[in-house]
């Protein structure tokens, strides 16, 4: 997507510098800073500190981390070491392990001398695939938006609520939840997006930055406003992303998603989840019982970051000194609250049959593993 007229992906390989470049998202939406990642430690830090974030982007970053490891020492031992080091950076988004597993399996099957070049090639492939998957999710989600738009008086926007940032900077490009929005806007379908702020880290501000840069009408709202808006008929549909979806369609996503799904169910508002296939964890059935939920720092809750009046990016403390903060970063929305999963192969019911119907190849591999 474009930033000030220039097309960017959220990460890219610089051939001249022979190194990965990322957008350091800690400073967005106020400053656009690019950073080069040079060592495995820097890769791990970039993920842990959320310089890169969003399930698909974490996966793509990890693939480049494996390429870096293979470039310096392509032995089995070193690939295992890099796998373990990167795997423990964040526990919830399954794309991380998906990418690590894919890289390690492919590289170990090759002669040691071929691994470095193949690893870099594979990281590029994983990135390109992500862009393609998200574009297709956009096409499939666009159908849903088109249908709703067709039932509205001319010019009245389709009102979409989204939570967190499942936008282009959470992926390599397009985003997942935002891809149908970008494509609807590009097709001149009127849309308006309610953007949940998404405390504690306010990823909604990233979504506002993205949508604003693309000229899409949107309003930034508090996390608690969604239920009220739904009760008053102000939301036509919800589209969120996901960090891990189980084989029966339970959706783990940013904390607060579950409450939005409950409110949507109570108010008959369709609740869709944009789901790229690498985000499906075929080994897990019951999301509430089985998905590890990342617990992040208290400071993210007791403090907020923003732009100060003198134009600096700073943090202020919200709570009294010493107030304990709890910070579960994700929650699980059970499948019965999900209207449909928008995938790169089409839209399906959030159920084992729905997912296996669209992805028989992946479901079969998982069953035989
Ligand atoms: O903690 P984050 O910012 O990495 O969480 C991101 C989300 O929860 C997104 O909704 C999810 O990764 C889908 S991104 C396309």
Describe this structure in words.
The chain has a seven-stranded mixed beta sheet, sandwiched between helices. A four-stranded mixed beta sheet has the order 13-10-11-16, with helices on one face. A three-stranded antiparallel beta sheet has the order 3-4-5, covered by helices on one side. It is α/β, with parallel strands linked by helices. The chain is 41% helix and 19% strand. Helix 2 packs antiparallel against helix 5 and helix 3 runs antiparallel to helix 4. The protein has helices at residues 40-48, 55-72, 76-87, 94-108, 115-150, 178-186, 203-213, 226-231, 257-266, 287-290, 299-302, 352-358, 360-368; strands at 2-3, 6-7, 11-14, 19-23, 34-37, 158-162, 191-196, 218-221, 237-240, 244-246, 251-254, 271-274, 280-281, 303-307, 313-317, 330-333, 340-343, 346-348. The mean pLDDT is 98. The longest helix has 36 residues, at 115-150. The protein contains 13 helices and 18 strands. The chain has two domains: 2-128, Four Helix Bundle (Hemerythrin (Met), subunit A) (Up-down Bundle), CATH 1.20.120.420; 138-368, Translation initiation factor eif-2b, domain 2 (Rossmann fold, 3-Layer(aba) Sandwich), CATH 3.40.50.10470. A hairpin with a 2-residue loop joins strand 1 and strand 2. The structure holds 5-S-methyl-1-O-phosphono-5-thio-D-ribulose (MRU). The site of 5-S-methyl-1-O-phosphono-5-thio-D-ribulose has 18 residues, from helix 2 and strand 11.
């Amino acid at each position: 997507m474009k930033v000030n007229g220039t097309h960017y992906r959220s990460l890219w390989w610089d051939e001249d510098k022979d190194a990965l470049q990322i957008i350091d998202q800690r400073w967005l939406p106020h400053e656009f800073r690019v950073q080069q990642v040079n060592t495995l430690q820097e890769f791990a830090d970039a993920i842990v500190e959320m310089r890169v974030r969003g399930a698909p982007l974490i996966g793509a970053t990890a693939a480049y981390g494996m390429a870096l490891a293979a470039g310096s020492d392509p032995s089995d031992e070193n690939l295992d070491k890099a796998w373990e080091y990167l795997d423990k950076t964040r526990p919830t988004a399954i794309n991380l392990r998906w990418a690590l597993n894919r890289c390690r399996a492919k590289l170990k099957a090759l002669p040691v001398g071929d691994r470095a070049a193949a690893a870099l090639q594979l990281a590029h492939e994983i990135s390109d695939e992500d862009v393609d998957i998200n574009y297709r999710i956009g096409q499939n989600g666009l159908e849903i938006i088109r249908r709703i738009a067709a039932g509205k008086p001319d010019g009245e926007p389709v009102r979409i609520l989204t939570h967190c940032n499942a936008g282009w900077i959470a992926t390599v490009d397009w985003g997942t939840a935002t891809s149908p929005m970008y494509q609807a806007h590009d097709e001149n379908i009127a849309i308006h997006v309610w953007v949940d702020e998404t405390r504690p880290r306010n990823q909604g501000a990233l979504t506002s930055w993205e949508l604003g840069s693309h000229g899409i009408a949107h309003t930034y709202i508090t996390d608690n406003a969604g239920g009220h808006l739904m009760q008053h008929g102000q939301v036509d549909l919800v589209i969120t992303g996901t960090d891990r979806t189980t084989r029966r369609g339970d959706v783990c996503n940013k904390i607060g998603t579950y409450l939005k799904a409950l409110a949507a169910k109570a108010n008959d508002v369709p609740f869709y989840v944009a789901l790229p296939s690498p985000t499906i964890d075929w080994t897990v059935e019951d999301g509430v019982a089985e998905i590890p939920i990342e617990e992040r720092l208290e400071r993210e809750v007791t403090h907020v970051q923003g732009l100060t009046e003198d134009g600096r990016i700073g943090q202020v403390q919200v709570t009294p000194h010493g107030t304990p903060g709890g910070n579960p970063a994700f929650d699980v929305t059970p499948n019965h609250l999900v209207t449909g999963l928008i995938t790169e192969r089409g839209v399906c019911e959030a159920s084992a049959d729905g997912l296996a119907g669209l992805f028989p190849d992946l479901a079969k591999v998982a069953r035989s593993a």
